[in-house]
DNA sequence: AACAACATCAACCGCATCCTT
DNA sequence: AAAGGATGCGGTTGATGTTGT
């Protein structure tokens, strides 16, 4: 069936997002949510296609994103899940709170693939590479396959079972950000700060996700905006369990993050 | 200092899948 | 059941940054 392009190609901007565009998008989404991505750019005053807006939001602007490289545990988990799920990056990402499929995919292609190959493991099949005369040289990441080789030797048979590590990550969503090199993005601080300072009625706290959201753990949130929480899954706000609308402290939180 | 080679990652593209009519 | 639209997903690309010569 012939499909129309996702957006009108004429006049649609492409390429890197500017801080101003980011601000507009964040502003719009936190205020209105997104009824449908196709209409978001028009309503937000952006010359972008809806797809691009969705990608920018899910991969970069979402407040629950972790930043920085995957730590060893996360990397191990990705390897573990990849052995079971293959290149289903979104499924893998779903097990790593605060990580995106794109980020994991990139990390896999740039780091993990090489690491596994170096260790004598086929990154596709997760089987040892057959080089009988090439002695296996454990590297700094050798631990990866202590459990992995046992656990993932048979990819399909264990597909529904999760290793203890996998279970740990899939359930423990309140891990400390400090262990993952959760670097802050100054640009993001500015964007979010400006967004919230523009609307001082915002005010909420995220009691269960404090560490993950860092400086964004306390935000101001008007009751009028509460409706977007109904759609929080769409935003990837998985950590927003309960919002305490009575605890508002935007000044100390937001202003302290300003450069 | 200048250039090349390599690494990283944000963003795009096209197809798949889901949902509505 | 079929058609068409919206969104999601995975592969790929290209710009930018980093490292080596």
UniProtKB/TrEMBL annotation:
<dbReference type="InterPro" id="IPR001005">
    <property type="entry name" value="SANT/Myb"/>
</dbReference>
<feature type="domain" description="HTH myb-type">
    <location>
        <begin position="62"/>
        <end position="116"/>
    </location>
</feature>
<keyword id="KW-0677">Repeat</keyword>
<feature type="region of interest" description="Disordered">
    <location>
        <begin position="123"/>
        <end position="184"/>
    </location>
</feature>
<feature type="compositionally biased region" description="Basic and acidic residues">
    <location>
        <begin position="124"/>
        <end position="134"/>
    </location>
</feature>
<dbReference type="InterPro" id="IPR017930">
    <property type="entry name" value="Myb_dom"/>
</dbReference>
<keyword id="KW-0539">Nucleus</keyword>
<protein>
    <submittedName>
        <fullName>Uncharacterized protein</fullName>
    </submittedName>
</protein>
<dbReference type="InterPro" id="IPR009057">
    <property type="entry name" value="Homeodomain-like_sf"/>
</dbReference>
<feature type="domain" description="Myb-like">
    <location>
        <begin position="9"/>
        <end position="61"/>
    </location>
</feature>
<dbReference type="Pfam" id="PF00249">
    <property type="entry name" value="Myb_DNA-binding"/>
</dbReference>
<feature type="domain" description="Myb-like">
    <location>
        <begin position="62"/>
        <end position="112"/>
    </location>
</feature>
<feature type="domain" description="HTH myb-type">
    <location>
        <begin position="9"/>
        <end position="61"/>
    </location>
</feature>
<feature type="compositionally biased region" description="Polar residues">
    <location>
        <begin position="154"/>
        <end position="163"/>
    </location>
</feature>
<dbReference type="InterPro" id="IPR015495">
    <property type="entry name" value="Myb_TF_plants"/>
</dbReference>
<keyword id="KW-0238">DNA-binding</keyword>
């Amino acid at each position: 069936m012939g499909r129309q392009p996702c957006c009108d190609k004429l006049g649609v901007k492409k390429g890197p997002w500017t801080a101003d565009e980011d601000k507009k998008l964040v502003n719009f989404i936190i205020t209105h949510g997104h009824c449908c991505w196709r209409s978001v750019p028009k309503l937000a005053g952006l010359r972008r296609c809806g797809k691009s807006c969705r990608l920018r939001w899910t991969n970069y602007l979402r407040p629950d994103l972790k930043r920085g490289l995957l730590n060893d545990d996360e990397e191990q988990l990705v390897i573990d899940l990849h052995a079971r799920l293959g290149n289903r990056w979104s499924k893998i990402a779903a097990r790593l709170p605060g990580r995106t499929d794109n980020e994991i995919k990139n990390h896999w292609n740039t780091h993990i693939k090489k690491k596994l190959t170096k260790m004598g493991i086929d990154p596709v099949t997760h089987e040892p590479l057959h080089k009988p005369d090439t002695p296996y040289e454990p590297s700094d990441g050798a631990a990866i396959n202590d459990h992995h080789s046992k656990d993932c030797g048979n990819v399909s048979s264990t597909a529904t079972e999760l290793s203890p590590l996998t279970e740990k990550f899939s359930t423990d969503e309140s891990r400390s950000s400090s262990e993952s090199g959760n670097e802050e993005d100054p640009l993001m601080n500015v964007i979010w700060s400006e967004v919230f300072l523009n609307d001082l009625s915002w005010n909420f706290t995220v009691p269960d996700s404090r560490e993950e959201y860092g400086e964004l753990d306390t935000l101001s949130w008007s009751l009028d905006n509460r409706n977007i929480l109904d759609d929080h899954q769409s935003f990837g706000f998985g950590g927003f369990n309960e919002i305490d609308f009575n605890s508002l402290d935007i000044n100390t939180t937001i202003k302290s993050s300003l450069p």
